[in-house]
Design a protein that fits this description.
nine-stranded mixed β-sheet, five-stranded parallel β-sheet, elongated, 2 domains, alpha/beta
């Protein structure tokens, strides 16, 4: 088998005006007067400088096929100029005098370009703009460049943000967590009154850490982790009118049992509203259930230990037609961190029998590893396939 190569598409957008109110002791940068002064050159722009610090501290390993996806001008392209990477510009041109609408338009264009992680440079106002338009399962990380910085989606500094992204590029396990986006009333803040408001959450990478579970009731650590995974799945699996397709494997079977459903170890099972409606189903049966269902759908699979396949090994009942109907956004991959570590940094694999699905589903995906414990992990192509893609 050809050597696996990680691929990573990093979305990158900068709010050039973030932080301009700080030097003016303005308690923020939302004031139109302050922004006008910045555009006129009367106030220095700190965000582009901090964005460049992040870029310069990124470490791209030689076994990672890295593409930076960004927008034109000072919102991206000018910041990354001169870096020895593949840079892809999305079809979005920001205004000369950028506004919140430019940030939102840029984010939407970057998400449409299928980035694995969106990195944005700004402050709490920028985080609000991102949160307003980004899909809930799109990972995003903030590089701090604002004045207030009450949101929990930012790294400590640009260097730490670069170190966190570099961990991902090296194939390390990095946790994902829902972190708050908060902003304050700047007018009240200038009067010495702090009025902080919650505006939503972003799925944000954090440094992955292994937490040892204490043994209870004679259960092994592995059993406790599987209980945690089941609890994380419960709200989605038991939601009204939700059809769930369960792939084979001991991890998925244990999750079903912990949710009071009896599945099959080596087969594909189907549940609806938390009740099994088909056990050990063939491809036609699974597809029939999907075609006659008009509600939410989930596909839950696990990785083959030591090998890493999530599609195409032992679960050919998951046909290309079914995968296209389900869609990548409705895929849930579950695995213990111990199982992921057996891959020694190699990506998860997909061999669906449809080259287009294999290509479009590759990238970094969330893997549920416990209760409120999710890591971002690569689902990659082989080096030979990458080479073939690059041939004229």
């Amino acid at each position: 088998m050809a050597e696996a190569v990680r691929q990573f598409r990093l979305g990158f957008v900068v709010n050039p005006l973030a932080g301009v109110g700080g030097p003016a002791a303005n308690k923020g940068s939302d004031d139109s007067r302050i922004q006008a002064m910045a555009r006129a050159g009367d106030l220095p722009l700190s965000a582009p400088r901090r964005a460049r610090t992040f870029i310069e501290h990124l470490q791209i390993p030689p076994d990672c096929r890295f593409t930076l996806v960004t927008v034109a001008g000072l919102m991206g392209a000018e910041i990354v100029a001169g870096m020895p990477w593949d840079v892809e510009l999305v079809d979005f041109t920001p205004a000369e005098q950028t506004t919140a609408q430019d940030t939102q338009g840029a984010v939407q264009a970057l998400v449409a370009a299928q980035v694995d992680l969106l990195v944005f440079v700004g402050g709490d106002g920028t985080a609000r703009d991102v949160c307003a338009v980004i899909p809930p399962r799109q990972p995003a990380l903030g590089v701090p460049a604002g004045v207030k910085m009450h949101s929990g989606v930012y790294a400590i500094n640009p260097q730490m943000a670069a170190e966190l992204v570099s961990l991902l590029l090296r194939g390390e396990l990095v946790n994902l967590a829902m972190r708050e986006v908060r902003d304050i009333d700047e007018d009240a803040f200038r009067r010495g009154v702090v009025k902080s408001r919650h505006f939503g959450e972003l799925l944000t990478p954090e440094e992955g850490r292994f937490v040892q579970h204490v043994k209870q009731g004679g259960l092994e650590v592995e059993d406790l982790v599987l209980l945690d995974i089941a609890e994380q799945l419960r709200s989605e699996v038991e939601e009204d009118n939700t059809l769930v397709i369960w792939g084979p494997g001991s991890t998925t079977l244990n999750a079903m049992r912990n949710l009071n459903m009896e599945g099959t170890l080596l087969g594909v099972d189907v549940s609806l509203n938390g009740e099994v409606v088909a056990r050990d189903a063939d491809a036609k049966t699974v597809l029939d259930h999907l075609q006659h269902h008009d509600g939410p759908v989930l596909l839950i699979v696990t990785a083959i230990g030591g090998q890493g396949h999530i599609i195409g090994r032992g679960n050919q009942q998951l046909s290309p037609e079914l995968l296209r109907r389900v869609g990548r956004d409705n895929l849930r991959v579950i695995a213990t961190k111990t199982k992921l570590k057996t891959l020694a940094g190699r990506p998860l694999e997909i061999d669906s029998g449809d080259a287009e699905i294999d290509r479009t589903w590759q990238g970094y995906i969330p893997v549920i590893t416990g209760y409120e414990d999710t890591v971002l992990y690569p689902l990659g192509l082989h080096a030979s396939e990458i080479s073939a893609e690059q041939q004229p």
